[in-house]
């Protein structure tokens, strides 16, 4: 099944040629020659990558393929040795995470230990852009920061309501379930009104009963006109929500295409089989109850 009610931008993405580095009809993010080494390992070595505006793009690949490193580089949380990239026509290579976020490209972060000790609402307020307390001269004007705080809190509560987390606003973030944490990560990112949102494994640690709701939230972002790029290991989620899939292996983009076909690409099968012989590439036949029962028995016997 393809993503439900795709936008025209998402439909345009599906028309792109399914080859690594494929040009997109209306790219919002364009990266060239991006390289990052750790010691002797080339963690990222991406020749060319374009992300279609208004579409949901999944970034997949086996462990150690370089997905997180590429995320970190593009969003200004790590420095590339080589490469250029632009967002919405603006060069942003080498810019700080804060500058990239202000340009409209925002990533989610997994809830750290420190953030777990704050309440849900405090987490939201920390994500609020340009907190006046961070700017020395404004911190001397109490009316300025009070007005800012009031507006930020109203916005935070509105977003929390959308994610059905408003009743949890005073709970410690650490007390949330896996799925609720993922919703909070998404909610935090929305505090900055992004044009493009980059989700780091939105389905990791989520109870299967909540997966559908999370997928609906991801689709809703696209319906609002946002561009979504997400790293994910859950291939069923990738199949069901993405308009386009980019596959990385050993730092490179080895395949791209619509979710229905890319999983059958020999380069993808090779990349996964090289790393894991038991990787589920999202084949829906695996949803057959008999197959699932067999996998569960095999897991128990391990
Ligand atoms: N800070 C670091 N120091 C040294 N090596 C690193 C560092 N970060 C990543 N690496 C290495 O770079 C390569 C790519 O790692 P990365 O975490 O980007 O892969 P990934 O595709 O996100 O993997 P996963 O799916 O397991 O999260 C791996 O070989 C990893 O060990």
UniProtKB/TrEMBL annotation:
<dbReference type="Pfam" id="PF00005">
    <property type="entry name" value="ABC_tran"/>
</dbReference>
<feature type="compositionally biased region" description="Low complexity">
    <location>
        <begin position="1"/>
        <end position="19"/>
    </location>
</feature>
<dbReference type="InterPro" id="IPR032823">
    <property type="entry name" value="BCA_ABC_TP_C"/>
</dbReference>
<dbReference type="InterPro" id="IPR027417">
    <property type="entry name" value="P-loop_NTPase"/>
</dbReference>
<dbReference type="InterPro" id="IPR051120">
    <property type="entry name" value="ABC_AA/LPS_Transport"/>
</dbReference>
<dbReference type="GO" id="GO:0016887">
    <property type="term" value="F:ATP hydrolysis activity"/>
</dbReference>
<dbReference type="InterPro" id="IPR017871">
    <property type="entry name" value="ABC_transporter-like_CS"/>
</dbReference>
<feature type="region of interest" description="Disordered">
    <location>
        <begin position="1"/>
        <end position="25"/>
    </location>
</feature>
<dbReference type="GO" id="GO:0005524">
    <property type="term" value="F:ATP binding"/>
</dbReference>
<protein>
    <submittedName>
        <fullName>ABC transporter ATP-binding protein</fullName>
    </submittedName>
</protein>
<dbReference type="InterPro" id="IPR003593">
    <property type="entry name" value="AAA+_ATPase"/>
</dbReference>
<dbReference type="Pfam" id="PF12399">
    <property type="entry name" value="BCA_ABC_TP_C"/>
</dbReference>
<feature type="domain" description="ABC transporter">
    <location>
        <begin position="29"/>
        <end position="275"/>
    </location>
</feature>
<dbReference type="GO" id="GO:0005886">
    <property type="term" value="C:plasma membrane"/>
</dbReference>
<keyword id="KW-0067">ATP-binding</keyword>
<keyword id="KW-0547">Nucleotide-binding</keyword>
<keyword id="KW-0813">Transport</keyword>
<dbReference type="InterPro" id="IPR003439">
    <property type="entry name" value="ABC_transporter-like_ATP-bd"/>
</dbReference>
């Amino acid at each position: 099944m393809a993503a439900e009610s795709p936008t025209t931008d998402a439909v345009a993405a599906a028309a792109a040629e399914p080859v690594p580095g494929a040009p997109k009809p209306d790219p919002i993010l364009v990266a060239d020659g991006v390289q990052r080494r750790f010691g002797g390992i080339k963690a990222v070595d991406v020749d060319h990558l374009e992300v279609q505006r208004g579409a949901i793009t999944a970034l997949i690949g086996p462990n150690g393929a370089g997905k997180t490193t590429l995320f970190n580089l593009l969003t200004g949380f790590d420095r590339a040795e080589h490469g250029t990239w632009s967002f919405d026509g603006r060069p942003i290579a080498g810019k700080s995470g804060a500058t990239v976020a202000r340009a409209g490209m925002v990533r989610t972060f997994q809830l750290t230990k420190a953030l777990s000790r704050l309440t849900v609402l405090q987490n939201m307020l920390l994500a609020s852009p340009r907190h006046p307390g961070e700017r020395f001269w404004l911190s001397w004007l109490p009316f300025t920061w009070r007005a800012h705080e009031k507006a930020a809190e109203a916005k935070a509560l509105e977003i929390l309501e959308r994610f059905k987390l408003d009743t949890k606003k005073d709970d410690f973030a650490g007390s949330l379930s896996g799925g609720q944490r993922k919703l909070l990560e998404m909610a935090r990112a929305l505090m900055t009104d992004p044009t493009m949102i980059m989700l780091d494994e939105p389905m990791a640690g989520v109870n299967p009963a909540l997966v559908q709701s999370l997928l609906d939230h991801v689709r809703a972002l696209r319906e609002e006109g946002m561009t979504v790029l997400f790293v994910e290991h859950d291939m069923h989620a990738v199949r069901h929500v993405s308009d386009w899939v980019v596959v990385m292996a050993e730092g490179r983009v080895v395949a791209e295409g619509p979710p229905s076909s890319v999983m059958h690409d020999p380069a993808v099968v090779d990349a996964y089989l090289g790393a894991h012989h038991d990787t589920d590439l999202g084949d829906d036949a695996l949803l057959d109850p008999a197959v699932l029962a067999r996998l569960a028995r095999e897991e128990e016997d391990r």
